[in-house]
């Protein structure tokens, strides 16, 4: 049974051209004019693009005394409704827990997924067991990325000695570290002071983690990664201080990638000053939303190529969950949603305003991350042999974002009231139509785990260079006798 996406314009990270796309057995088998097949999907007036890949989501995440509300079923449903066909979640071992045991929990949760998914493994504690299990994670479990939290002191945070040890281990294994870059010690100290002074509302969350806190941690992680000889991926880059560190590192030849979120690109810190406690608390996430200067920096980074991918960090908590923090902002569960809105928002505010070309849009929503995570061209491509994870994008369809009509299970949207133009006509996951305009045809359990191999081209280049310039003893003749 074949399908043909007919009459559209194919848009990839580097090309725009008219062609039909034929799909058989879940993969693309032909691209060209006048193709025929058993089922025709009308793409006239539409762009045929690689489905979005969201490299940063937390589905049913155990965090701050609760679980994020969207699980792999509702989260991936939300994803495909907005044109995203793959998500990457974070496996989080408890303190002292085996990485393998944690992975079993994530394997169980993800059986509900509608679209394909992969995992990053988090390093939440350090010891010989973690050191050893990292090898199994990479060699046997198809995970080549390890996440490190420099924030969340007392729970997920790792110290610099642990961080450097893990970065060195990543280098040995051909893996890539990721960092949540905020100085957790400074955040904890500032939070305690703010509470003492009576700053207990959600606005104090933003006061407790200014851009300098993020810039410092980003610089530190970059330096440690450089010393360890590994590439580095900085998640949720939200401000100029962090972007500047990434830009400077890249300009010096370091392999550092920055990931702004659609929320930081389009929402600003004024959200925290809203008189409605719920409104402000619903936007509490780390790092917090910033002012326009920072937003402009992030957009410029996408244009210049110093920032690589746009994600959501989808970690959705209901209003009731957010209210755990009434009277103490440090207890508001950190996280915001946006999985279904990432593509329409970025298209509207990026392509629609002329900040991004359509090809850049594809690059930062799909192709770049597929390459960085070593799953290109299976994912992130419209090429013969690639998985048929495709969005048929109708640039004329529009809607007003509202919680009442969203797919995510939470009771509000941080993008409430935003008008977007550009929405999926069809979303296909490995050839299966999951979405046709507003109609969901999702199938729980259709999603498969995507295994990713280590030793990417970047890892290889970096280790070749590091080996060439590594410290070596100088061979000397005539060594003087010891002075003793
Ligand atoms: O506030 C956030 N970002 N919550 C999710 C966990 C994380 O830090 O990525
Ligand atoms: Zn984070
Ligand atoms: Zn996150
Ligand atoms: Zn299926």
UniProtKB/TrEMBL annotation:
GO terms for cellular component: cytosol. InterPro entries: Amidohydro-rel, Hydantoinase/dihydroPyrase, Metal-dep_hydrolase_composite, Metal_Hydrolase, Metallo-dep_Hydrolases_sf. Residues 47-420 form the Amidohydrolase-related domain. It comes from Cohaesibacter marisflavi. One of its GO terms (molecular function) is dihydropyrimidinase activity. NCBIfam families: D-hydantoinase (TIGR02033). This is D-hydantoinase/dihydropyrimidinase. It is an enzyme of class 3 (hydrolase). One of its GO terms (biological process) is pyrimidine-containing compound metabolic process. The lineage of its organism: Bacteria, Pseudomonadati, Pseudomonadota, Alphaproteobacteria, Hyphomicrobiales. Its EC number is 3.5.2.2. Carbamylation allows a single lysine to coordinate two divalent metal cations. The modification N6-carboxylysine is found at residue 147. It catalyses: 5,6-dihydrouracil + H2O = 3-(carbamoylamino)propanoate + H(+). Its cofactor is Zn(2+). It comes from the Bacteria.
